[in-house]
């Protein structure tokens, strides 16, 4: 009994230490063409902007804002993935993102951070409502599917379906779906655009992302394409919230990363 009690105290301690640390993102991008100093007005404005994003994003899962004047004005966008909106994981993801982006890009006025559950970007250039595929990242599983021809056909049909879903106004840029490939194997996929995009821009971003996974991921069992304006993913294991919460948090050890520019 005594040992049990000690164990639970230890577990509580470990949990509380962990919870003060912000979780690692899937990826980040610090634009080295936009260097600033930590003591600049822009830097102070970024901190104020991030505070606005942190307090306003969780309620609807999406928020854009700007802060400051003239040369020092900064713009920001934060968004949770469509199926994560309304959950506690949406707000904690945005909090982590705001903390980590400043740690990872302390000297840049233009930075982007991607988590599986959320996305955050700020810049001293106004970017809201503009499609951005200037910088992208691909993660793919090193394993290949056993029947590429059938897989590609099924994946193509599924992605066409969820792209159409994402473009329906009520779905605000998010589409997800699954297809049984065999009694034991199910293919899961989702697409997500940032909510500031027009239907046409969302469709354009998704088309570019899909083109990239087709050429780069080929017959891979899983693939993720991350852009500033959209995110596309497919896997042979569950990835929708909340089931995918742990399996998808971090990059699997044998995943391969590539930068698209
Ligand atoms: C910005 O700073 C980084 C180091 O943090 C440096 O490598 C890079 O060359 C700088 N960029 C410009 C445009 O000066
Ligand atoms: C953003 O900041 C960078 C670095 O200070 C500067 O070179 C660039 O002109 C700024 N862009 C705008 C649109 O203000
Ligand atoms: C999967 O296919 C690629 C491309 O054909 C190949 O380079 C890679 O080695 C394959 N992976 C495995 C685990 O067989
Ligand atoms: C998530 O983690 C729990 C406990 O670590 C495990 O039982 C469960 O199978 C995991 N779920 C997925 C989808 O990996």
Explain what you see.
Belongs to the cysteine-rich repeat secretory protein family. The structure is a single chain. The chain is an alpha+beta fold and 261 residues long. The chain has two domains: 8-123, 2-Layer Sandwich (Killer Toxin P4, Chain A), CATH 3.30.430.20; 137-260, Killer Toxin P4, Chain A (2-Layer Sandwich), CATH 3.30.430. Helices cover 34% and strands 24% of the residues. It has five helices and eleven strands; from the N terminus they run αβαββαβββαββαβββ. It has helices spanning 2-19, 41-56, 88-104, 148-167, 199-216, and strands at residues 27-30, 62-67, 74-80, 111-114, 118-123, 136-140, 174-180, 186-193, 223-227, 230-235, 256-260. A six-stranded antiparallel beta sheet has the order 7-8-10-9-6-11, with helices on one face. A hairpin with a 5-residue loop joins β7 and β8 (186-193). α2 packs antiparallel against α3. The radius of gyration is 19 Å and the shape is elongated. 40% of the residues are buried. Residues 238, 243, 246-247 line the site of one 2-acetamido-2-deoxy-beta-D-glucopyranose. The site of one 2-acetamido-2-deoxy-beta-D-glucopyranose has 5 residues, from loops.
